[in-house]
Amino acid sequence: MSGEMTHLTEFWEATERDVLLGQRCGRCGTLQYYPRLRCTECGSGELEYEQLSGRGVIYSWAEVLRNAPSAVQADVPYVLAIVRLEEGPQLLTRIVDSADPQTLECDAPVEVVFRELGGRRLPCFRSV
Predict the structure, then answer these.
(1) In a shared domain, residues 41 and 70
(2) pTM above the 0.85 mark?
(3) Where in the sequence is the domain holding 82, given as residue range(s)?
(4) Number of domains in the chain
(5) Which residues, in sequence order, are bridge partners of residue 60?
(6) What is the pLDDT along the chain (128 residues), one digit of tens a residue?
(7) CA–CA gap between residue 83 and residue 47 (Å, rounded)
(8) Is the dihedral of CA 81, 107, 18, 49 positive or negative?
(9) Do the strands 90-95 and 47-51 form a parallel or antiparallel pair, or are they unpaired?
(10) Among 91, 93, 33, which residue's Cα sits nearest to residue 62?
(11) Is the peptide bond before 34 cis (omega within 30 degrees of 0)?
């Protein structure tokens, strides 16, 4: 198995257990999300997985009403958002289980939930 695939194994196994992982750099201490081979801050390969709280706030969001990629066309409409985790990293994700997308606001609290999307179990978020 290639180095790139090996470093993702732990991440994907965690999603199957509804656990959100980030990576902490052993050299500079940067916490990053999504998994990478190198630290985005210093370039080090000394990365360890760390469980994240799964809590955050909506930084920005948009409701996708049409022209979605074919793999998710059947899901239209859906809400795509940037969520800022309480630990600091931001991620592009989907907001699910919301009664009305028009009630969403920037800085609104959210928590992680995992959903099957495109053949993978992915972290999504819902309002709290």
Answers:
(1) no
(2) yes
(3) 55-127
(4) 2
(5) 82
(6) 445 556 789 999 999 999 999 999 999 999 999 999 999 999 999 999 999 999 999 999 999 998 877 777 888 899 999 999 999 999 999 999 976 888 999 999 999 999 998 788 999 999 99
(7) 22
(8) positive
(9) unpaired
(10) 93
(11) yes
